[in-house]
């Protein structure tokens, strides 16, 4: 059994529609205006503007400032100039995060320092998570597991404590009465 063949008008639509769509797309692509926008200047115009002397009645041409790049600030600059309004524990945790991949011993030292300075602060579980990860990097798995168990016991609802437990493969016991 052969399938019915489309009629002439229907066949023209089936073939003509995709061809027309391709032609329209090609027309739009080729017909794009390649001229620069009126506000855009070619890169060479900035160097010409810098070389040409300014007339007194003209406003000085100032190139736009580059966007601030927070990621390009060096770690040494961050440590040497702490912002006065930042939380000191937050900056210490940032230093711990930065040292985690390169110097896990430094993470342990900074956590010991923070424990003395900040004690059981709201961010203690976050410091504990970083300590767990540093201990794993130093192949001190038993200590890391014990610390993760302690964190999930002390801070059962804290996301950092839950993350430390998950990192170590610990499944906390459900709270409440047992069945």
Q: Given the structure, what is the number of helices? A: 8
Give the % helix: 55-70%
**Percentage of β-strand residues:** under 5%
- Please provide the ordered H/E string of secondary-structure elements: HHHHHHHH
Shape, per Cα inertia axes: elongated
Q: Could you tell me the radius of gyration in angstroms?
A: 32 Å
The whole-number mean of residue pLDDT values reads 75
In words, what does this structure look like?
With 179 residues, the chain is an all-alpha fold. The protein is 59% helix and 0% strand. It contains 8 helices and no strands. α4 (88-102) packs parallel to α6 (124-137), α6 packs antiparallel against α7 and α7 (141-154) packs antiparallel against α8. It starts with 7 loop residues before the first helix and ends in an 11-residue tail after the last helix.
Set down the secondary structure blueprint.
Blueprint (H helix, E strand, L loop, with lengths): L7 H23 L12 H9 L23 H6 L7 H15 L1 H15 L5 H14 L3 H14 L4 H10 L11
Helix pairs in contact: 4-5, 4-6, 5-6, 6-7, 6-8, 7-8
State the gist of this model.
Helix content is 59%, strand content 0%. It has 179 residues and is mainly α. Helix 4 (88-102) packs antiparallel against helix 5 and helix 5 runs antiparallel to helix 6.
Descriptive key words:
mainly alpha, 0% strand, 179 residues
